[in-house]
Amino acid sequence: MARISKSNAAKFNARTLTKLQAAIEKDPEIDLTTKWPLRYSDRLHEMRQDVQIENATAMKSYGVDDIRALIRLSASAEIIFPLSDTLQDLLGMCNSTEMQSQCLAQRLVDVIGLSKVVWKGPFARQKMVLSCGYNIILKAVRNLDDTTEYTTLAYLYQYKPNIAAPKPLVWPSLTTVQKGLIKEQLTPIMNDLRSLLGEGCKDIRRHLRRSIKPILTVDEFEDFLFNSDRPGGEVFVEVLRQLSLATQLPSPAIVFTHGDLRPENIAVNYENNEWTISGLIDWEYSGFYPKYYQAIRCTNCMAPYKEKDWYLFIPNCDSPKRYKHWWLLDRAREVRNV
Protein backbone atom coordinates (compact mmCIF):
# COMPACT_ATOMS: atom_id res chain seq x y z
CA MET A 1 0.00 0.00 0.00
CA ALA A 2 1.41 3.38 -1.01
CA ARG A 3 0.41 6.97 -0.31
CA ILE A 4 0.93 9.98 -2.58
CA SER A 5 2.35 12.80 -0.50
CA LYS A 6 1.65 16.54 -0.64
CA SER A 7 2.98 18.78 -3.41
CA ASN A 8 6.31 20.57 -3.04
CA ALA A 9 4.48 23.86 -2.47
CA ALA A 10 2.38 22.34 0.32
CA LYS A 11 5.44 20.80 1.98
CA PHE A 12 7.31 24.11 1.67
CA ASN A 13 4.48 25.90 3.50
CA ALA A 14 4.34 23.16 6.14
CA ARG A 15 8.09 23.45 6.82
CA THR A 16 7.79 27.23 7.00
CA LEU A 17 4.91 27.04 9.46
CA THR A 18 6.78 24.54 11.66
CA LYS A 19 9.81 26.82 11.73
CA LEU A 20 7.70 29.87 12.65
CA GLN A 21 5.83 27.98 15.38
CA ALA A 22 9.11 26.83 16.91
CA ALA A 23 10.37 30.41 16.89
CA ILE A 24 7.21 31.67 18.64
CA GLU A 25 7.48 28.98 21.32
CA LYS A 26 11.04 30.09 21.99
CA ASP A 27 10.19 33.81 21.95
CA PRO A 28 6.47 34.75 21.82
CA GLU A 29 7.36 38.36 20.93
CA ILE A 30 9.79 37.55 18.13
CA ASP A 31 9.77 39.51 14.87
CA LEU A 32 8.65 36.74 12.50
CA THR A 33 10.02 38.53 9.44
CA THR A 34 13.51 37.58 10.63
CA LYS A 35 12.57 33.90 10.36
CA TRP A 36 10.79 34.09 7.02
CA PRO A 37 12.43 32.01 4.21
CA LEU A 38 14.45 33.96 1.65
CA ARG A 39 12.50 34.71 -1.53
CA TYR A 40 9.46 33.04 0.01
CA SER A 41 6.85 34.41 -2.41
CA ASP A 42 8.96 33.80 -5.52
CA ARG A 43 9.83 30.24 -4.50
CA LEU A 44 6.22 29.41 -3.62
CA HIS A 45 4.98 30.92 -6.89
CA GLU A 46 7.42 28.78 -8.90
CA MET A 47 6.33 25.61 -7.11
CA ARG A 48 2.64 26.38 -7.57
CA GLN A 49 3.15 27.23 -11.23
CA ASP A 50 4.73 23.82 -11.85
CA VAL A 51 1.76 22.12 -10.19
CA GLN A 52 -0.76 24.19 -12.17
CA ILE A 53 0.88 23.17 -15.45
CA GLU A 54 0.82 19.53 -14.38
CA ASN A 55 -2.82 19.80 -13.26
CA ALA A 56 -3.88 21.31 -16.59
CA THR A 57 -2.11 18.52 -18.50
CA ALA A 58 -3.56 15.77 -16.31
CA MET A 59 -7.11 17.14 -16.42
CA LYS A 60 -6.88 17.46 -20.20
CA SER A 61 -5.89 13.78 -20.39
CA TYR A 62 -8.39 12.36 -17.90
CA GLY A 63 -11.03 15.03 -17.36
CA VAL A 64 -11.69 17.15 -14.29
CA ASP A 65 -13.86 14.53 -12.53
CA ASP A 66 -11.20 11.80 -12.44
CA ILE A 67 -8.94 10.99 -9.50
CA ARG A 68 -6.05 10.22 -11.88
CA ALA A 69 -5.91 13.92 -12.74
CA LEU A 70 -4.84 14.60 -9.15
CA ILE A 71 -1.83 12.26 -9.18
CA ARG A 72 1.15 14.36 -10.25
CA LEU A 73 4.72 13.63 -11.26
CA SER A 74 5.95 16.33 -8.88
CA ALA A 75 4.39 14.58 -5.89
CA SER A 76 6.39 12.21 -3.75
CA ALA A 77 5.12 8.83 -2.58
CA GLU A 78 5.69 6.65 0.44
CA ILE A 79 5.10 2.96 1.10
CA ILE A 80 3.12 2.49 4.33
CA PHE A 81 2.67 -1.30 4.06
CA PRO A 82 5.00 -3.79 2.31
CA LEU A 83 4.36 -4.38 -1.39
CA SER A 84 4.14 -7.86 -2.90
CA ASP A 85 6.98 -9.14 -5.08
CA THR A 86 4.69 -8.98 -8.15
CA LEU A 87 3.85 -5.35 -7.48
CA GLN A 88 7.48 -4.46 -6.85
CA ASP A 89 8.37 -6.01 -10.21
CA LEU A 90 5.56 -4.08 -11.92
CA LEU A 91 6.80 -0.82 -10.39
CA GLY A 92 10.45 -1.65 -11.11
CA MET A 93 11.33 -1.00 -7.49
CA CYS A 94 14.97 -0.21 -6.67
CA ASN A 95 16.84 -1.60 -3.68
CA SER A 96 17.91 1.88 -2.58
CA THR A 97 15.41 3.56 -0.24
CA GLU A 98 16.43 6.96 -1.60
CA MET A 99 15.87 5.83 -5.19
CA GLN A 100 12.48 4.34 -4.21
CA SER A 101 11.34 7.70 -2.87
CA GLN A 102 12.42 9.47 -6.05
CA CYS A 103 11.02 7.02 -8.62
CA LEU A 104 7.91 5.59 -6.93
CA ALA A 105 5.62 8.51 -7.81
CA GLN A 106 6.86 8.43 -11.42
CA ARG A 107 6.29 4.68 -11.72
CA LEU A 108 2.84 4.94 -10.12
CA VAL A 109 1.84 7.60 -12.64
CA ASP A 110 3.16 5.41 -15.50
CA VAL A 111 1.32 2.30 -14.29
CA ILE A 112 -1.92 4.22 -13.67
CA GLY A 113 -1.69 5.73 -17.16
CA LEU A 114 -1.65 2.24 -18.69
CA SER A 115 -4.37 0.83 -16.42
CA LYS A 116 -7.99 0.12 -17.29
CA VAL A 117 -10.86 1.60 -15.28
CA VAL A 118 -12.74 -1.25 -13.60
CA TRP A 119 -15.08 0.83 -11.44
CA LYS A 120 -15.75 4.43 -10.56
CA GLY A 121 -18.30 5.77 -8.16
CA PRO A 122 -20.63 8.73 -8.60
CA PHE A 123 -17.73 10.95 -7.52
CA ALA A 124 -14.80 9.53 -9.50
CA ARG A 125 -12.64 12.41 -8.32
CA GLN A 126 -12.71 10.76 -4.87
CA LYS A 127 -12.42 7.04 -5.60
CA MET A 128 -11.68 4.72 -8.54
CA VAL A 129 -10.64 1.11 -9.07
CA LEU A 130 -8.15 0.30 -11.85
CA SER A 131 -6.84 -2.94 -13.33
CA CYS A 132 -3.06 -2.85 -13.72
CA GLY A 133 -2.71 -6.31 -15.29
CA TYR A 134 -0.87 -9.27 -13.75
CA ASN A 135 -3.92 -9.86 -11.49
CA ILE A 136 -3.23 -6.55 -9.71
CA ILE A 137 -6.10 -4.20 -8.86
CA LEU A 138 -5.41 -0.63 -7.75
CA LYS A 139 -7.93 1.17 -5.58
CA ALA A 140 -7.19 4.91 -5.56
CA VAL A 141 -8.88 6.94 -2.80
CA ARG A 142 -8.40 10.64 -2.17
CA ASN A 143 -7.39 11.91 1.28
CA LEU A 144 -7.54 8.48 2.92
CA ASP A 145 -5.99 8.12 6.36
CA ASP A 146 -7.93 5.00 7.44
CA THR A 147 -6.12 1.75 6.56
CA THR A 148 -8.88 -0.59 7.79
CA GLU A 149 -9.41 -2.18 4.37
CA TYR A 150 -5.76 -3.18 3.97
CA THR A 151 -5.40 -4.52 7.49
CA THR A 152 -8.69 -6.43 7.13
CA LEU A 153 -7.53 -8.13 3.93
CA ALA A 154 -4.25 -9.07 5.59
CA TYR A 155 -6.18 -10.39 8.61
CA LEU A 156 -8.54 -12.47 6.44
CA TYR A 157 -5.63 -13.83 4.41
CA GLN A 158 -4.09 -15.12 7.63
CA TYR A 159 -7.17 -16.43 9.45
CA LYS A 160 -9.79 -17.03 6.72
CA PRO A 161 -7.94 -17.53 3.40
CA ASN A 162 -11.01 -19.28 1.96
CA ILE A 163 -13.06 -16.04 2.11
CA ALA A 164 -13.31 -14.66 -1.43
CA ALA A 165 -11.78 -11.21 -1.24
CA PRO A 166 -10.63 -9.11 -4.12
CA LYS A 167 -13.33 -9.26 -8.93
CA PRO A 168 -18.28 -5.77 -11.58
CA LEU A 169 -22.03 -4.93 -11.40
CA VAL A 170 -24.77 -7.25 -12.71
CA TRP A 171 -27.38 -7.38 -9.94
CA PRO A 172 -30.10 -5.42 -11.79
CA SER A 173 -29.91 -7.86 -14.73
CA LEU A 174 -30.30 -11.03 -12.64
CA THR A 175 -33.57 -12.94 -12.42
CA THR A 176 -35.28 -13.54 -9.09
CA VAL A 177 -34.03 -17.14 -9.12
CA GLN A 178 -30.45 -16.02 -9.80
CA LYS A 179 -30.62 -13.47 -6.99
CA GLY A 180 -31.86 -16.20 -4.67
CA LEU A 181 -28.86 -18.36 -5.61
CA ILE A 182 -26.49 -15.48 -4.82
CA LYS A 183 -28.19 -15.17 -1.43
CA GLU A 184 -27.65 -18.90 -0.82
CA GLN A 185 -23.95 -18.56 -1.68
CA LEU A 186 -23.54 -15.54 0.59
CA THR A 187 -24.93 -17.31 3.65
CA PRO A 188 -21.99 -19.69 4.31
CA ILE A 189 -19.50 -16.89 3.54
CA MET A 190 -21.11 -14.58 6.08
CA ASN A 191 -21.40 -17.38 8.64
CA ASP A 192 -17.72 -18.15 8.19
CA LEU A 193 -16.83 -14.50 8.81
CA ARG A 194 -19.00 -14.46 11.92
CA SER A 195 -16.98 -17.33 13.38
CA LEU A 196 -14.15 -14.83 14.03
CA LEU A 197 -14.65 -13.31 17.47
CA GLY A 198 -13.09 -10.07 18.69
CA GLU A 199 -13.74 -6.39 19.37
CA GLY A 200 -13.30 -2.85 17.92
CA CYS A 201 -15.70 -0.57 16.03
CA LYS A 202 -16.66 2.76 14.47
CA ASP A 203 -20.07 4.29 13.71
CA ILE A 204 -20.67 5.29 10.09
CA ARG A 205 -23.97 6.88 9.16
CA ARG A 206 -23.88 10.28 7.50
CA HIS A 207 -20.48 10.96 9.03
CA LEU A 208 -17.71 8.82 10.47
CA ARG A 209 -17.49 8.81 14.26
CA ARG A 210 -14.82 6.87 16.15
CA SER A 211 -14.78 5.92 19.80
CA ILE A 212 -11.97 7.59 21.75
CA LYS A 213 -11.56 4.49 23.93
CA PRO A 214 -11.69 0.73 23.29
CA ILE A 215 -15.17 -0.82 23.15
CA LEU A 216 -15.21 -4.37 24.50
CA THR A 217 -18.89 -5.16 25.20
CA VAL A 218 -22.29 -4.69 23.56
CA ASP A 219 -23.34 -2.41 26.45
CA GLU A 220 -20.36 -0.14 25.75
CA PHE A 221 -21.19 -0.21 22.03
CA GLU A 222 -24.81 0.80 22.67
CA ASP A 223 -23.60 3.62 24.94
CA PHE A 224 -21.35 4.79 22.12
CA LEU A 225 -24.28 4.86 19.67
CA PHE A 226 -26.47 6.79 22.11
CA ASN A 227 -23.77 9.34 22.95
CA SER A 228 -23.48 10.95 19.52
CA ASP A 229 -23.06 14.66 18.80
CA ARG A 230 -26.85 14.84 18.44
CA PRO A 231 -28.14 12.35 21.02
CA GLY A 232 -31.65 13.81 21.22
CA GLY A 233 -33.57 14.95 24.28
CA GLU A 234 -33.14 13.20 27.62
CA VAL A 235 -36.65 11.67 27.54
CA PHE A 236 -36.20 10.42 23.96
CA VAL A 237 -32.85 8.81 24.78
CA GLU A 238 -34.12 7.25 28.02
CA VAL A 239 -37.12 5.67 26.25
CA LEU A 240 -34.81 4.15 23.64
CA ARG A 241 -32.42 2.90 26.31
CA GLN A 242 -35.33 1.14 28.04
CA LEU A 243 -36.14 -0.57 24.75
CA SER A 244 -32.57 -1.78 24.27
CA LEU A 245 -32.16 -5.53 24.62
CA ALA A 246 -28.64 -4.97 25.92
CA THR A 247 -30.13 -4.28 29.35
CA GLN A 248 -32.50 -7.29 29.29
CA LEU A 249 -30.74 -10.28 27.73
CA PRO A 250 -27.29 -11.86 27.65
CA SER A 251 -25.09 -9.76 25.38
CA PRO A 252 -24.94 -10.91 21.73
CA ALA A 253 -21.60 -12.23 20.54
CA ILE A 254 -19.17 -9.80 18.92
CA VAL A 255 -18.24 -11.17 15.49
CA PHE A 256 -16.29 -10.12 12.41
CA THR A 257 -18.46 -8.01 10.12
CA HIS A 258 -17.97 -6.81 6.53
CA GLY A 259 -19.83 -3.59 7.28
CA ASP A 260 -20.89 -2.63 3.74
CA LEU A 261 -22.59 -5.68 2.23
CA ARG A 262 -24.47 -4.67 -0.95
CA PRO A 263 -24.53 -5.74 -4.64
CA GLU A 264 -21.81 -3.25 -5.61
CA ASN A 265 -19.41 -5.04 -3.25
CA ILE A 266 -20.23 -8.61 -4.32
CA ALA A 267 -18.24 -9.73 -7.36
CA VAL A 268 -19.53 -12.63 -9.46
CA ASN A 269 -18.43 -14.79 -12.40
CA TYR A 270 -20.70 -16.26 -15.10
CA GLU A 271 -19.72 -19.83 -15.96
CA ASN A 272 -21.74 -22.80 -17.23
CA ASN A 273 -24.91 -20.67 -17.28
CA GLU A 274 -24.55 -19.90 -13.56
CA TRP A 275 -23.53 -16.87 -11.55
CA THR A 276 -21.10 -17.67 -8.75
CA ILE A 277 -19.59 -15.35 -6.14
CA SER A 278 -15.90 -14.72 -6.86
CA GLY A 279 -15.13 -12.14 -4.18
CA LEU A 280 -16.22 -9.52 -1.68
CA ILE A 281 -14.67 -6.07 -2.01
CA ASP A 282 -14.58 -2.77 -0.09
CA TRP A 283 -13.59 -3.86 3.42
CA GLU A 284 -12.87 -0.37 4.79
CA TYR A 285 -15.93 -0.51 7.09
CA SER A 286 -15.17 -3.97 8.44
CA GLY A 287 -14.42 -4.84 12.04
CA PHE A 288 -15.72 -6.66 15.09
CA TYR A 289 -19.33 -5.72 15.93
CA PRO A 290 -22.33 -7.24 17.73
CA LYS A 291 -23.74 -10.05 15.58
CA TYR A 292 -26.92 -8.07 14.84
CA TYR A 293 -25.05 -5.05 13.45
CA GLN A 294 -24.57 -6.30 9.88
CA ALA A 295 -28.38 -6.36 9.53
CA ILE A 296 -28.39 -2.66 10.40
CA ARG A 297 -25.47 -1.81 8.11
CA CYS A 298 -26.97 -3.76 5.17
CA THR A 299 -30.00 -1.47 5.16
CA ASN A 300 -28.25 1.76 6.11
CA CYS A 301 -29.10 3.36 2.74
CA MET A 302 -32.61 1.93 2.41
CA ALA A 303 -35.16 4.68 1.76
CA PRO A 304 -38.99 4.50 1.66
CA TYR A 305 -39.27 5.17 -2.08
CA LYS A 306 -36.13 3.54 -3.50
CA GLU A 307 -37.18 0.27 -5.11
CA LYS A 308 -33.98 -1.74 -4.64
CA ASP A 309 -34.89 -5.40 -4.21
CA TRP A 310 -31.46 -6.29 -2.77
CA TYR A 311 -32.96 -5.78 0.69
CA LEU A 312 -35.22 -8.78 0.02
CA PHE A 313 -32.21 -11.03 -0.63
CA ILE A 314 -29.95 -10.26 2.34
CA PRO A 315 -28.58 -13.56 3.75
CA ASN A 316 -30.71 -14.89 6.60
CA CYS A 317 -27.83 -14.71 9.09
CA ASP A 318 -27.63 -10.93 8.50
CA SER A 319 -31.27 -10.19 7.77
CA PRO A 320 -33.34 -7.61 9.70
CA LYS A 321 -35.93 -10.41 10.03
CA ARG A 322 -33.56 -12.21 12.39
CA TYR A 323 -32.82 -9.12 14.50
CA LYS A 324 -36.15 -7.27 14.35
CA HIS A 325 -35.87 -5.58 17.73
CA TRP A 326 -32.29 -4.34 17.25
CA TRP A 327 -33.06 -3.17 13.70
CA LEU A 328 -36.19 -1.22 14.67
CA LEU A 329 -34.40 0.29 17.67
CA ASP A 330 -31.64 1.59 15.42
CA ARG A 331 -34.21 3.02 12.99
CA ALA A 332 -35.77 4.92 15.88
CA ARG A 333 -32.32 6.08 16.99
CA GLU A 334 -31.65 7.34 13.45
CA VAL A 335 -34.63 9.74 13.76
CA ARG A 336 -32.32 12.05 15.76
CA ASN A 337 -30.42 12.87 12.55
CA VAL A 338 -33.48 13.79 10.49
TrEMBL record:
Pfam family, one: APH
Record-linked Gene3D superfamilies: 3.90.1200.10
Aminoglycoside phosphotransferase domain boundaries: 246-292
Superkingdom as given in the UniProt entry: Eukaryota
InterPro entries recorded: AGP_Transferase (IPR051678), Aminoglycoside_PTrfase (IPR002575), Kinase-like_dom_sf (IPR011009)
Descriptive protein name: Aminoglycoside phosphotransferase domain-containing protein
Provenance organism: Aspergillus violaceofuscus (strain CBS 115571)
